[in-house]
Design goal:
Blueprint: H1 2-6, E1 27-28, H2 34-50, E2 58-65, E3 68-74, H3 78-90, E4 103-106, E5 110-113
Parallel strand pairs: 1-2
Antiparallel strand pairs: 2-3, 4-5
Helix pairs in contact: 2-3
Length: about 120
């Protein structure tokens, strides 16, 4: 809820129906990536507020897939796509549960976990 409140432009689709946007399902990833998503959104919105000629990014879906963060959007440009790719890459070393340093593990299901959250 705090991310939606802090970044209403990015999460404009959060209150749409599930037939209009996958964001209706909310964030389908663990709270351990909260700071990573917050930092990503902060950098995106700061950049876009300074560049009105670039289409506002609207999050279509935020989820875990194959163990890492997936942040699907409409809008933006190469720079914002680079920020998203960087955050998705960083999620590979951040525990999805608690936010501590972690590593990608495969026990039949890919996930990023720290030693404490195994």
């Amino acid at each position: 809820d705090k991310l939606v409140q802090d970044y209403p432009k990015i999460f404009a689709n959060r209150n749409k129906s599930k037939y209009e946007s996958p964001m209706a399902w909310g964030f389908t990833c663990g709270n351990g990536w909260y700071n990573l998503i917050d930092l990503l959104c902060s950098n995106i919105q700061y950049y876009l507020d300074d560049k009105p000629e670039i289409h506002q990014i609207i999050a279509d879906q935020v989820k875990e897939k194959f163990g890492t963060l997936q942040f699907y959007v409409t809008g933006g440009n190469d720079y914002t796509r680079g920020l998203i790719r960087m955050a998705e890459s960083l999620s590979e070393v951040i525990c999805e549960n608690c936010g501590n340093p972690g590593k990608l593990m495969d026990d039949g299901w890919l996930k990023v976990r720290c030693e404490s959250c195994l």
